[in-house]
Structure formats: C-alpha cells, structure tokens
Specification:
A hairpin with a 4-residue loop joins strand 6 and strand 7. The strands form three sheets. Strands 3-1-2-4 form a four-stranded mixed sheet. It contains 15 helices and ten strands. By secondary structure, it is α/β, with parallel strands linked by helices. The chain has four domains: 61 residues, DNA Methylphosphotriester Repair Domain, CATH 3.40.10.10; 97 residues, Orthogonal Bundle (Arc Repressor Mutant, subunit A), CATH 1.10.10.60; 84 residues, Double Stranded RNA Binding Domain, CATH 3.30.160; 81 residues, Orthogonal Bundle (Arc Repressor Mutant, subunit A), CATH 1.10.10.
C-alpha cells in the first residue's frame, strides 16, 4: 500500500479515521514516543509531522521502534498463528533475555518452523527480533553514561564481558581495544531510522553510518588506518554538535549540516562527495546528471562507485542520487531508508 511518497497524506487520513482496512498492510511509527502501532490503535492520534509509515513490523523494529503495548501491532500475526502468539508473549515477558534456538526447542517448538513462520508473517526471525530488542536496550543505557555492568544487565547479558563483546562486534573491534580515553571516539546516536554510529576526533567527523551495515567493521578499520589512531568510546564537541544537527534534521526544522567532516579517498572520490553535498534537500540527481556536473559525462559507473564509498550517511547525501528512470535503489543503508529520507526532505522543503 506504500507505493509513492504521496501515500503519506492518504495514510495519515486513514490513521486519523482508524481505518482497520490497513491493519497488516501498513504500520505507523511515532518519532516522539519511539513506538509503532496498528491503524486501529485507540491512543490519541499523533501529529502528522511526528509519524512515519512502514510496511512491516520488521521495518519498524529495524528503525528502532518498540511495539505499542496498547494495540499490540504484532498480535495480528499471532491471531493467525498460535505459535507466533506464544513466542511473542514469551518475548514480552522477558524482553532482555538472550534467546537461542535451544530455548525455542525447550518450549516444544521446531526452530526451523519458527523461523519460517516469523519471516512469512512479520518479515524477520524471532531470534533477530529478540537480538534487536536486547542490544538496543543495552546501547541506550551505555549511551546515557551508565556503568558497563548496568548496561549489560539492561541488555540481558550474563556478564559485562559478554555485553562488551556484543557491543564491540557492532564496531568491528575486540572488547579489549574499546577504550574510554582514545582521541578518536565512537558513540551510538538513536534516530527514527535506527541506531547510527558516529566517529569523530578534535578535527571533525570521520564516519556516520547505520549500525546494522555489514560493511561497518571494514569502514571503521579504514578510519583507524587513515587517522592513525584506535577508536574508543567517549565524547567530543563534534559528536555533540552532530547530535543536535541530526535532531533538527529528523524534526524537519533544519536539513543543513555544519559539523566539520574529514575528507578521504582519491581526488575523484572527493569531487563526487562534494557534488553530492551540492544537491539541495528535496531534490535528486541521476548518476548521469551528477557525472555531467563533474565534467565526466560518461563516468556514470565511476560516480556510482564513488557514491558507494561514502561513509558519512545523510551528511554527504548519497541518498539523493537515483536511477535515470526515477527508480529508488542502490542504497547501502537499505532502500527503505532511502525512500524515507527522500520523502522526509521533500515534505520539509515543499512550499
């Protein structure tokens, strides 16, 4: 039911009318509460500027939202599949438990059957759903400055070392190398599109990426090699500035960024990244158009490769480059995120 950016108005009207015909086809996520709901939820209708629509519970979970306890948006699948209902109830009872296939089997269920049912009905597996819930809780606590032991308890890990190991895997590091006094520091930033990882030092921002990117470990290694420094955890003025600017961006009050960034790559890559930053919010270019602007009209593939090398998501807006036929594809953070970003920017630059 989500086919074009214009659908947001139609979907919001359906939400205001509590149109149950949309149940199971679209879900509403509320940025101010971090919760996603069914269209028939009896909670007060949120403001239009505070909602985002998704096509599946999996997309909502990946974007960092929690299911509403009032309307239970994942219960619809459970109503059709008692096995799903039983496991969702178990997860709700122990949201920070470190679930594994042995636990599923101990409840009398076949893990492969569970995996198929969850993918078919919710777009993700039960174990992945449990992992996202657990790691997000732990990361949020860590970001707020809690001790490691407090964070690992929130995340449901059995030991502090277990929590640090899981946290380190997201950074592509081993637990022993995560320092609190490093010059090059990393931290989580929660956004409506899911957790992001930012890396900065006294010179500026080196990286801003979605935490679920498969390429993140290799990108972090490249940052360390270029900076000549190990990445630790900590705070910096540039990270604080980035958080404020991202908050304004997602609120739609300002789509501009002024946080200093470091440059990297070949002269050609740097030219492409500058070209990306010159694309105004709310507008798009094709790879061919961007190549022409860079006086390399036949270098569409080279533009695409340089575009893919970007490790400063949103700030260097590679999401504003689309196919020549207008199709939205080819975004390392996920096509659904690219659609969201483009719709968000068009909404807040219209008129």
């Amino acid at each position: 039911m989500l086919t074009t950016p214009l659908d947001k108005d139609r979907l919001y009207d359906a939400l205001a009318a509590r149109d149950e015909a949309y149940d199971g086809h679209a879900y509403v996520a509320v940025t101010t509460t971090g919760i996603f709901c069914r269209f028939a939820c009896r909670a007060r209708t949120p403001k239009r500027e505070n909602v985002t629509f998704y096509q599946s519970p999996a997309e909502c979970l990946e974007a960092g939202y929690r299911p509403c306890k009032r309307c239970k948006p994942m219960a619809a699948a459970g109503e059709r599949e008692p096995l799903i209902a039983a496991l969702l109830h178990a997860l709700e009872a122990e949201p920070t438990r470190r679930w594994c296939e042995r636990d599923i089997a101990a409840l009398g269920h076949d893990p492969s059957t569970v995996r198929r049912l969850f993918r078919r009905n919710l777009g993700t597996t039960f174990l992945e759903m449990a992992r996202l819930r657990r790691v997000k809780e732990g990361a949020t606590t860590r970001k707020e400055g809690a001790a490691v032991i407090d964070a690992q308890l929130d995340a449901g890990f059995e030991s502090a070392s277990g929590f640090r190991a899981a946290f380190a895997r997201l950074l592509g590091r081993t637990p022993g190398t995560i320092r609190q006094d490093a010059e090059l520091v990393a931290d989580f930033i929660d956004t409506p599109l899911g957790a992001m990882i930012a890396v900065a030092d006294g010179r500026g921002l080196w990286l801003l990426e979605f935490a679920d990117r498969k390429e993140l470990p290799s990108e972090l290694q490249a940052v360390e090699a270029q900076a000549g420094s190990e990445i630790g955890f900590g705070e910096s003025a540039h990270l604080g500035r980035l958080r404020n600017e991202l908050e304004a961006y997602f609120a739609g009050t300002s789509l501009a960024f002024s946080v200093p960034v470091t440059t990297y790559g070949t002269p050609w890559m740097k030219d492409v990244h500058k070209g990306l930053q010159a694309i105004p919010p709310g507008q798009t270019l094709s790879y061919k158009d961007l190549a022409r602007k860079l006086d390399r009209p036949t270098a569409m593939r080279a533009v695409a490769r340089a575009n893919a090398s970007n490790r400063l998501a949103i700030i260097v807006p590679c999401h504003r480059v689309i196919a020549a036929d207008g199709k939205i594809s080819g975004y390392a953070g996920g096509v659904w995120r690219k659609r969201w970003l483009l719709e968000h920017e068009r909404t807040h630059t219209a008129g």
